[in-house]
Design goal:
The protein is of the alpha+beta class. It has 4 domains: 73 residues, no CATH class; 105 residues, Arc Repressor Mutant, subunit A (Orthogonal Bundle); 64 residues; 92 residues, Arc Repressor Mutant, subunit A (Orthogonal Bundle). It is built from 14 helices and 14 strands. The strands form 5 sheets. Strands 1-3-2 form a 3-stranded antiparallel sheet. It has a 3-stranded antiparallel sheet with strand order 6-8-7. A hairpin with a 3-residue loop joins strand 2 and strand 3. The relative contact order is 0.09.
Length: 406
Amino acid sequence: MGDIFENLGDRELQRRDERRQAVGLLLASPFVTDDGPEVAAFALVRRHADALREWFRHHLGYRLVVDHEFARLYKRSPPSAEGRWEDRPRGASWGAAQRPFDRRRYAILCLVLAALEKVETDQTILSELAVAVRDLATDTEGVTPLDLEQPGERRRFVDALLLLVDYGILARTDGNEGGYVRQGKGDALYDIDSRRLTQMLASPMPPSLAEHPRDLAEESYAPTPDGKNDRLRHRLMRHMVEQPVLYFDSLDEDERGYFNAVRPRLIDQIETWTPLTVEVRREGVVTIDDSGRCSDLRFPGQRHVDHAALLIADALARRCGKPSATAPAERLIVARADLLQAAVRLLQTHSWRAAYRDDASGATLLDDALSVLADLGLVRRHSEGVEPLPALFRFRYVEPSTEANL
């Protein structure tokens, strides 16, 4: 009998570990395919599809579609946060350099998807798709025309294509995009996966029913106590699994009351079903991904901008004059001019990529570093300067002690 119970326990631990891997994969990559780099983890998503669908639905309000060729997690922003939370949804990026998608790239991506819907065959070529997207941009009200004579516009157009290649919606079968980006010449042939194409739109409201773009993200909850609890649970859980830090002073009375009442259950769900670890501190909650499996933000990282962010974080912490890893006693705004001086000193004492070296004022290095810190919930930017937030002090450099441990 002992062996039976031991085997049952081992199988349950294995199931739990497999589900954690699957959830981590979906949180990091909401569109996963059977021919992508995470084939083994994708198999776990399919194996535990029913349990994963229910967990995402109940705890986060996310819809999960699992097919034999792909899995699509339809994420949402925290519902109706009324601007009080700095949710900073992190958008798409592509490639080893993690080029970010700005508003223009998203507009072009939408045009590319619309053009692909009109293709009547299962293949297309880059040059024909570029013409179709250019025509759509010209004919669509409110969209800036696409000038493919400009290298920057060609780069943005190709970034949209490469994102779709990454998702398996387009499969390059011949040619490449390099010559087109550099000189407007060259071509590439793509197979189109129309089934995956239909899974791109994540809006809870059909666009045809939306009166304004902001309506696309609106979610409906029942006007009942259960509906209110669903909204609160989804808001808190989404923030904790998608953002590194949740500060208690960002919560309203209902949110604080709900969090305090069910905090052990929320944390248990996160730590049971995801690779994340939750730390509760006086100022808030920190969610840590030691596994590196389910976060798209890794800090400190290996990029120059991560190095710059770490050094600016230390400069900010030292500016606050706190020797310990705690928050400043009072709200403090550090003037941008002071940080620019710190950035100039960094330029003089470290090796940086050309884009930073070419701006002797330090503004490029500083702004990129502050963007990283803001995304991590470590600083808040104001017109008059930068406010260090409590979690920043985890990254204050402390000289190692030379005294022997007795």
